[in-house]
Amino acid sequence: MEKEAKIYVAGHRGMVGSSLVRELKLQGFNNLVLRTSSELDLRNQAAVHAFFEQEKPDYVFLAAAKVGGIVANNTYRADFLYENLAIQNHVIHASYLQNVKKLMFLGSSCIYPKLAPQPLKESYLLSGYLEPTNEPYAIAKIAGIKMCEAYRAQYGCQFISVMPTNLYGINDNYDLENSHVLPAMIRKFHEAKLRGDESITLWGTGSPKREFLYADDLAKACLFLMQNYDQSEFINIGTGEDVTILELAEIVKKVIGFNGSINWDTSRPDGTPRKLMDVSKLHGLGWKHQVNLEEGIQLAYQDFLQNPNSRK
Ligand SMILES: NC(=O)C1=CN([C@@H]2O[C@H](COP(=O)(O)OP(=O)(O)OC[C@H]3O[C@@H](n4cnc5c(N)ncnc54)[C@H](OP(=O)(O)O)[C@@H]3O)[C@@H](O)[C@H]2O)C=CC1
Ligand SMILES: C[C@H]1O[C@H](OP(=O)(O)OP(=O)(O)OC[C@H]2O[C@@H](n3cnc4c(=O)[nH]c(N)nc43)[C@H](O)[C@@H]2O)[C@@H](O)[C@@H](O)C1=O
């Protein structure tokens, strides 16, 4: 990417998009094109095509999506399928029509079969049934991967896909019902500490395992791959290390300084038992994450405390 290149970051107000913008600016990319969803609703095909025709970006990071945790995915199944398909169809096709030099599509580790062998190699895609709680979202993400592959094969487009593991960081969504587990834990432990509660309640059994990557590390990986990776096959982004939800809770509890106990609401879903990324392809290219889990949780907690705009 040339420093003066025009770069469109779709979803720049989100956790990942805002981190991408910070990293791009840090690295000297300042010709950024940004639109909020109220300025440009990416579900509106005509509006997306008009925007691309007018702006003609050189590079596109597609980090706009309908995103949420296990319960949001399971509850708003139609919205997760329709909105994500619409957003990615419009942005990817318009990028082809306007000769975008390179596009990066962000998928998710939920594209892998629920019971796939661990760690998850890129080649395991479509080798088994998906986890039911997020099947609509995963189907949309798989369609996005296949669109990038197809536009490369048929039209020679330099479109790549990356599959991030579970993310957390600055500007996360802290809604208690719709968020992912880490922001939910930060808010639950913090508010319980303030109230002096004796216990907090988390979801499921605590036994599923998850891998967590700090969003600023993800943004660094995305910029690295935009400049150093150009193949049809998508690539995993993660740390290659996971913890049980119970172990995660113990870390968050310690960082926040909550002294009570933890109850488990087993009427809430556990989701997939484990989804640990195989990151050997990414490490082979020379990229590795920098922020470890406890350090990242401390940074996210500081942001939660200090940022008056945090999404609670
Ligand atoms: N968070 C996670 O744990 C993971 C996320 N990912 C992927 O990373 C990407 C970014 O996720 P994340 O930053 O967490 O999500 P956020 O919810 O934080 O941000 C999503 C952004 O998408 C934008 N958006 C949503 N709908 C529309 C629309 N109809 N038109 C225009 N913009 C829209 C929103 O814009 P606005 O603010 O202007 O409304 C929002 O800023 C997604 O593709 C997601 O699937 C992958 C793995 C894990
Ligand atoms: C990134 C990924 O995120 C989603 O998948 P998920 O990893 O299952 O999502 P999650 O972060 O919401 O939960 C992880 C685990 O944590 C447990 N858990 C405990 N207590 C709380 C809790 O209070 N809130 C939440 N949300 N989960 C909790 C919860 O029961 C589960 O076992 C996909 O739908 C899809 O969006 C996707 O790709």
General description of the model:
With 312 residues, the chain is of the alpha/beta class. The chain has helices at 15-26, 45-55, 70-75, 77-97, 135-155, 181-195, 215-228, 245-256, 280-284, 293-306, and strands at residues 7-10, 32-33, 59-62, 102-106, 159-164, 166-168, 199-203, 209-210, 212-214, 235-237, 243-244, 261-265. α5 (135-155) links the parallel β4 and β5 (159-164). α1 packs across α7 and α4 (77-97) runs parallel beside α5 (135-155). Bound molecules: NADPH dihydro-nicotinamide-adenine-dinucleotide phosphate (NDP) and ligand F7E. NADPH dihydro-nicotinamide-adenine-dinucleotide phosphate binds next to α1, α4 and β6.
TL;DR of this structure?
The protein is built from ten helices and twelve strands. With 312 residues, it is α/β, with parallel strands linked by helices.
Question: How many alpha or pi helices?
Answer: 10
User: If you consult CATH, what is the topology of the domain at 7-172 and 211-241 and 275-292?
Assistant: Rossmann fold
Principal-axis shape: globular
Termini, distance in Å? 36 Å
Small-molecule binders here are: NADPH dihydro-nicotinamide-adenine-dinucleotide phosphate, the ligand C[C@H]1O[C@H](OP(=O)(O)OP(=O)(O)OC[C@H]2O[C@@H](n3cnc4c(=O)[nH]c(N)nc43)[C@H](O)[C@@H]2O)[C@@H](O)[C@@H](O)C1=O
Rg is: 19 Å
Beta-strand portion reads: 5-15%
Tell how many strands the DSSP assignment holds: 12
Question: What is the name of the CATH class of the domain at 7-172 and 211-241 and 275-292?
Answer: Alpha Beta
CATH superfamily of the domain at 7-172 and 211-241 and 275-292: NAD(P)-binding Rossmann-like Domain
**Largest β sheet strand count, sense and barrel closure:** 6 strands, parallel
